[in-house]
């Protein structure tokens, strides 16, 4: 199945204004992972600025997009992990290799 792009998503050179120059642009330059936290500046109409710092709550787990397709909510993730824990408990314990005796 071939995906078609909508007319709005197709970007042509003549659609860009001449003052837009991306020759030195770096993709993802301002990207920061969410797990490092982030700061939001809120500029109010009275001229004041409120700065709020956000970090992830303790115990928060971030899922990659490909995993998120299969586990859309916390309940599905917890059910899958509980199944895995049960399976792990059924596996035999690994034994440490013992040293062979020489000349016995």
Number of helices: 2
Shape summary: elongated
Low-pLDDT stretches are: none
Strand content: 5-15%
Largest sheet: 2 strands, antiparallel
What pattern of helices and strands is seen along the backbone? Answer: EEHH
Report the radius of gyration as a whole number of Å: 27 Å
Distance between the termini: 69 Å
Total DSSP E strands: 2
Structural class: alpha+beta
Q: What portion of residues is helical?
A: 10-25%
The largest sheet has its strands arranged as 1-2
Q: Averaging pLDDT over every residue, what do you get?
A: 80
Give a summary of the structure in a few sentences:
The chain has 2 helices and 2 strands; from the N terminus they run ββαα. By secondary structure, it is an alpha+beta fold.
